[in-house]
């Protein structure tokens, strides 16, 4: 009887260890899939302003429509609308080894653009939190 209990406890312990190992692996895989902070960094308008006014060579991309861009945009920005059919083609003209800063009106379209850039192999991607609305709210200059 004692050997049967020992055998059952041993089997139970083995089953628990297997379940735990699968659980830990699943957690590891999940964190690897959501850990985009190494490649896409959400940054403040002030950080974008500082980057634009630094000596660093950056690529600043306004992913809004042409009409929105004409209304106002950040100094030095180029307009590549994320919803245009030729977005991927225009993005290919950017240097994958240089930082790319993307922004839109509030942050939704720039997040989509950042994901597309990541899929295309860009490694230094910065997404401006709050978009141009937060930029203007902070009283930072724009061009028309």
Strand numbers in spatial order across the main sheet: 1-5-4-2-3
CATH overall fold name of the largest domain = Oxidized Rhodanese, domain 1
List the helices and strands in order: HEHEHEHEHEH
- Provide the number of structural domains: 2
Determine the structural class based on helices, strands and strand pairing: alpha/beta
Q: How does the overall form come out from the CA principal axes?
A: elongated
Biggest sheet layout? 5 strands, parallel
How many alpha or pi helices?
6
Query: What is the H level of CATH, i.e. the homologous superfamily of the largest domain?
Result: Rhodanese-like domain
Query: In which range does the helix fraction lie?
Result: 40-55%
Which stretches of 5+ consecutive residues score pLDDT under 50?
29-37
**Beta-sheet strand percentage?**
5-15%
CATH level 1 name of the largest domain: Alpha Beta
**Gyration radius, to the nearest Å?**
24 Å
Description:
This protein has 144 residues and is of the alpha/beta class. The protein folds into 2 domains: 1-34; 36-137, Oxidized Rhodanese, domain 1, CATH 3.40.250.10. The chain contains 6 helices and 5 strands. A 5-stranded parallel beta sheet has the order 1-5-4-2-3. The longest helix has 33 residues, at 2-34.
């Amino acid at each position: 009887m004692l050997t049967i209990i020992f055998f059952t406890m041993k089997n139970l312990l083995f089953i628990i260890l297997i379940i735990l190992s699968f659980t830990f692996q699943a957690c590891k895989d999940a964190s690897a899939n959501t850990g985009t902070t190494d490649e896409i960094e959400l940054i403040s308008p002030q950080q974008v302003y500082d980057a634009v006014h630094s000596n660093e060579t950056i690529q600043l991309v306004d992913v809004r429509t042409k009409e929105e861009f004409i209304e106002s945009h950040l100094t030095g920005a180029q307009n590549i609308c994320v919803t245009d059919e030729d977005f991927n083609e225009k993005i290919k003209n950017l240097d994958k080894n240089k930082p790319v800063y993307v922004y839109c009106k509030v942050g939704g379209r720039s997040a989509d653009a950042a994901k597309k850039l990541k899929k295309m192999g860009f490694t230094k991607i910065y997404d401006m939190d709050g978009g141009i609305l937060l930029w203007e709210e902070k009283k930072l200059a724009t061009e028309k």
